[in-house]
Model the fold of this input.
Amino acid sequence: MLDRIYIPNPFGWGGPSTFSILMMIAFLVGTYLLPREFKRRGLVPEAADWVVFLGVMGTLVGSKIFFIFEIWDQIFVEVPGFEGKYIYPITHWNGFPGQPGLWNSLFSGGGLVFYGGYLTSMIFILIYMRKNK
Done:
């Protein structure tokens, strides 16, 4: 399987990953089909846009947060000579030397955890559905 679809450019960006392309296609198909399903079931079709939006946001936010929980023991470690196990990784972008940093891992292109995105998007959608009946 291809990791990336290479697009020649002068900035050094390798191009979009196949995962991101397939994820975008899935959300576009959901945006197209969900209002039709809502209409067929007698629900408000305009609510489908919010459901898809909350699904996308929940997927992106939750998958990154659960990734941080997954590598928690690699980010927050006891290293002699540094001021604290929790303070140093929070205040320094790259974290401890030789370890993944909290902020570097949070804003990197990789590290998406499926169950984190699924749970968070379901929570976002359930809160929206209960609030708007």
Summary: The chain has a mean pLDDT of 79. Residues 58 and 121 are 4 Å apart (CA to CA). Residues 46-132 form one domain. The chain has six helices and no strands.
